[in-house]
Amino acid sequence: MPKTFTQIPLTRPATPLLDMLTSPAELRRLPATRLEQVVDELREYLLYAVGQCGGHFGAGLGVVELTVALHYLYNTPDDRLVWDVGHQCYPHKILTGRREGITSIRQQDGLSGFPKRSESEYDTFGVGHSSTSISAALGMALGAEMAGSDRRAVAIIGDGAMTAGQAFEAMSHAAHTRSNLLVILNDNNMSISHNVGGLSNYFARIWASKSYIALREGGKKVLSTMPAAWDFIRRTEESMKNMVSPDMLFEAIGFNYIGPIDGHNVDELVRTLGNMRALEGPQLLHVYTTKGKGFAPAEADPVGYHAINKIEPKPKVQVAVPSQPKKPKYQDIFGQWLCDMAEQDKRLVGITPAMCEGSGMVEFSQRFPDRFHDVAICEQHAVTLAGGLACENQKPVVAIYSTFLQRGYDQLIHDVALQDLDVTFGLDRAGLVGEDGATHGGVFDLAYLRTVPNMIIAAPSDENECRQLLYSAYQHEGPAAVRYPRGTGPGVAIEKAMEALPIGQARTLRDGQQVAILAFGALTPAAQEAGKALNATVLDMRWVKPLDRDAILQAVASHTLLVTVEDHQRMGGAGSAVNELLHEEGLLVDVLNLALPDHFIHHGKRDVLLAEAGLDAQGIEAQIRTRLSEQQRLREAR
Ligand SMILES: Cc1ncc(C[n+]2csc(CCOP(=O)(O)OP(=O)(O)O)c2C)c(N)n1
Ligand SMILES: CC(=O)[C@@H](O)[C@H](O)COP(=O)(O)O
Ligand SMILES: [Mg+2]
Fold first, then answer.
1. 10, 47, 127, 374: least buried by Cβ within 10 Å?
2. Residue 156 near ligand 1, beta carbon < 6 Å
3. Quick check: CB of 85 below 6 Å from ligand 2?
4. Among candidates 610, 606, 573, 609, which has minimal Cα distance to 591?
5. Residue 243 scores a pLDDT above 50
6. CB-hemisphere CA count at 13 Å for 54?
């Protein structure tokens, strides 16, 4: 039985056996009887490490035994372990030479919170978005076959990630190729929220079928003592399964299904995986685990412990600090607006692809359960579902992270925009997201949205504008997106009343001379600060599409330098839209586009990363001053 902890250790626990294991090869030299100790030490060290730096928590705790068993039985890194989503990879990182570095996880220049090929040869596939592991592992299995290698490929996928279509696309193909691929379904009955849908109910039924399990276990205990009897076990399991569940989904697809087994029994995992290693063709092992296993508060509240913040040690002397009113996050502004809007309009339907908490929809889901749809990790379905609802004169609002809407791009074009359907997108986590890094950066949405006919796109500069622009986008009868960042804004007062702001109309924040700064979205306060220092004109553009043409032309007429500011890739973003407009108008004006450069920006604190990209107030001011000096030099040279 694994140990259960009730507190996160704040000092490094003693882990004598773990300390000796600097690579999986050393783990493999241990007798199997020592693995339970490895499991306990690894779990305690993991608790300590995440407490030191914050990060994904429950998922890693749930796969400690599985991680140990896999590295024990498979010849990693030659055999390929592919983790799905990758938020459960911390124990894997600890066992694969990154034990000390793990306390730097998700911090700038520290380890990534996800498997990353450039970080370690044990990280076989870069990940962060879900449901890619089976496709990638199948590719590796096929690649090994082509190279005449007998290396194995294993995909470890959660029950949440398994709800996405891509997982089934890959399984269907694997069944066709008959490759030697092992898929481990790590079923903890949880996504970030409680897992939902028919598939999740199906998994729960399998697990709950106690009689089946008892029957199966009874049979296996006897038979597994005889290695040669493995074939017989399989045949026996086959008939037992048929007695209970004649329509085994995975068997029907073409996988050999084994399980469910207890994912916290390291001996059982080693025994079963050891037997399965030799099997040919696509295999699926169904493992049942508990999210947050071994840490009692996380087991009791797996949603709350999906990820945690760094644990700050209590100061020895408590100084009374007057409490500041807490600023709402943008996700909360969205959630409050959604509830208020739903009260006014019975046709409003809220949709989330498995991000209810992160998207600020908990209150909405409780107050309007009939109009709330968590569709599981199915972004494509979320978008087309909204299209269908709009056809029936309902008013769907899709709350979706910018990075995850990338998954639903064809649906956005083909199923929504092309038919000019009335769908509102609450596009959360737009811009750099910080600690999750490049996999989650919401830095492409303007480029991929503004090229789509019929779309309108708003970029609020503060919390109140976010509420008002959500209202405006919702009133618009056609596809509309409002993009807002992760975390909090400047902290302006939020008006309860909702007012539709004119579409495509900017507002002037300050009048100045020589320089006009066109600010798009969350960086507007920084642009405003820079504008003040430079005595520049500053416009809060509010809309990326349509642009406020008149305001831009007026700015061109009365300034010598136009500056665009946005937290998005420079290429294809709001600045590009302004450049295109000026080109169409045949206007020659000096334009400075301040935005993110053409490379991926990895993990770190959002503020620091923005400053490094020259997108804080000082950076904006400095770049403008440099350009003004260049202008001056050119004038003097003429
Ligand atoms: C395409 C995509 N959509 C949403 C997410 C956000 N997300 C990260 S983990 C997760 C839940 C995954 O559940 P599961 O695979 O069962 O893993 P568990 O956390 O239960 O271990 C979700 C929805 C994501 N990473 N990728
Ligand atoms: C792994 C994953 O995709 C999510 O857990 C993500 O890290 C959540 O991000 P937020 O913390 O911004 O909600
Ligand atoms: Mg799960």
1. 10
2. no
3. yes
4. 573
5. no
6. 13
Q: Is 78 among the annotated ligand-binding positions?
A: no
**Confidence check: pLDDT of 240 > 50:** no
Q: How far is ligand 2, taken at its centre, from the CA of residue 390, in Å?
A: 29
For residue 424, what are its two tokens? Answer: 């509102």
Compute the Cα dihedral for 315, 319, 323, 324 and give only its sign: negative
241 lines ligand 2 (CB under 6 A): no
Q: Is the pLDDT of residue 218 over 60?
A: no
- What are the tens digits of pLDDT across the range 105-156? 999 999 999 999 999 999 999 999 999 999 999 999 999 999 999 999 999 9
407 is a catalytic site residue: yes
Residues of the chain with CATH 3.40.50.970: 16-209+257-308, 330-483
- Mean pLDDT over each residue of the chain, to the nearest integer: 93
Å from CA of 191 to ligand 3 middle = 5
CATH architecture of the domain 330-483 equals: 3-Layer(aba) Sandwich (3.40)
Atom of ligand 2 nearest to the CA of 355: 13
**Range(s) within the chain of domains with CATH label 3.40.50.920:** 507-637
At residue 183, does pLDDT exceed 60?
yes
Q: Is 161 annotated as a binding residue?
A: yes
Confirm if 431 and 442 have CB atoms less than 8 A apart: yes
pLDDT above 50: residue 211: no
DSSP annotation string for 45-97: HHHHHHHHH-EE-HHHHHTHHHHHHHHHHS-TTTSEEEESSSTT-HHHHHHTT
pLDDT exceeds cutoff 60 at 247: no
Residue 298 Cβ contacting ligand 1 at under 6 Å? no
Chosen CATH of 507-637 out of 1.10.3380.30, 3.40.50.920, 3.40.50.300, 3.90.180.10: 3.40.50.920
**Are the C-beta atoms of residues 411 and 380 closer than 8 Å to each other?**
yes
Ligand 1 pocket member 87 (CB < 6 A): yes
Residue reference for tokens 């006897």: 222
Q: To the nearest whole percent, how much of the chain has pLDDT over 70?
A: 93
Measured from the alpha carbon of residue 88, the closest ligand is 1
Number of neighbours of residue 474 by Cβ within 10 angstroms: 23
75 among annotated binding-site residues: no
Its CATH architecture, for the domain 16-209+257-308, is 3-Layer(aba) Sandwich (3.40)
- Which residue, chain included where needed, has tokens 């700050």? 312
- Compute the distance from residue 594 Cα to the ligand 3 centre, in Å: 40
pTM assigned to the model: 0.94
Protein residue whose Cα sits closest to atom 6 of ligand 2: 436
Q: Phi, psi (5° rounding) for residue 349?
A: -125, 130
Instruction: Please tell me the distance from the alpha carbon of residue 505 to that of residue 465, in angstroms, as a whole number.
Output: 13
Q: What residues have CB less than 8 Å from 234, skipping those under 6 apart?
A: 256, 258
Q: Do the Cβ atoms of 26 and 70 come closer than 8 Å?
A: no
Q: Is 176 annotated as contributing to ligand binding?
A: no
Residue 379 annotated in active site:
yes
Centroid of ligand 1 to alpha carbon of 131 (angstroms): 8
Rounded CA-CA distance 70/81 in Å is 8
Atom of ligand 1 nearest to the CA of 358: 6
The reply to whether ligand 2 has any atom less than 6 angstroms from the CB of 486 is yes
Residue nearest to atom 23 of ligand 1 (CA): 354
Asked if residue 155 lies in contact with residue 137, where contact means CB atoms within 8 angstroms, the answer is yes
* Ligand 1 atom having least distance to the Cα of 63: 21
